[in-house]
Task: inverse folding
């Protein structure tokens, strides 16, 4: 009964988001991004508080990674075109932040299966992610050396489009590595993680198709 109720809620949620999108794309985008950021932070909080009971460090590594992925996504939301938080950057800024977060996410999922059999150095992992996060922010906001992802005249750059395809490839490899270790997961957990990676691949494909921040492909 509860499962059927949850399934029935999905169309209502999607319909509600579409109505919000018709009213204000910025409100729609912020709502979706806030939800995803909350999920990312929740992953970290749940995993961190249950780390002593885990049989391997796969989820612990993922949890630490999503703390920083969520932080990048939050800045991406604030930097989105029309929000007015960061003046003078245009559409390129949120696109750079988005691709940075997706690289971090895909590479984290690629590396995570190695911690099914290896112990994780928590302090070192946090230090590495904190350093990478800081370098990405500096390269985008201050040094200006991060590759251009969106040109206001032509739309998506070759770097952005190639990056999305590369990210899809990395996610595919991470999914294959995950399935090879399926015996180490509860079937329900494996199913959720697999679907998450698969849907992320589908969303990345959609992000190769838009020419503006408010288009339908971006919404999907």
Result:
């Amino acid at each position: 009964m509860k499962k059927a109720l949850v399934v029935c809620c999905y169309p209502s949620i999607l319909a509600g988001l579409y109505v919000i999108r018709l009213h204000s794309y910025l409100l729609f985008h912020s709502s979706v991004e806030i939800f995803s950021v909350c999920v990312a932070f929740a992953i970290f909080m749940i995993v961190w508080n249950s780390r002593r009971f885990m049989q391997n460090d796969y989820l612990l590594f993922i949890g630490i990674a999503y703390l920083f992925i969520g932080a990048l996504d939050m800045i991406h939301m604030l930097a989105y075109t029309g929000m007015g938080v960061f003046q003078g950057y245009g559409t390129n800024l949120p696109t750079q932040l988005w691709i940075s977060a997706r690289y971090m996410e895909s590479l984290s999922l690629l590396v995570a299966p190695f911690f099914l059999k290896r112990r994780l150095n928590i302090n070192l992992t946090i230090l590495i992610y904190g350093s990478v996060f800081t370098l990405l922010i500096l390269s985008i906001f201050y040094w200006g050396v991060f590759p251009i992802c969106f040109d206001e005249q032509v739309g998506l750059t070759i770097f952005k489009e190639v990056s999305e395809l590369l990210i899809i490839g990395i996610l595919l490899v991470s999914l294959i590595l995950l399935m090879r270790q399926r015996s180490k997961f509860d079937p329900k957990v494996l199913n959720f993680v697999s679907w998450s990676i698969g849907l992320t691949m589908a969303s990345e494909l959609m992000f190769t198709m838009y020419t503006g921040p408010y288009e339908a492909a971006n919404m999907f």
Residues 25-49 form the longest helix (25 residues).
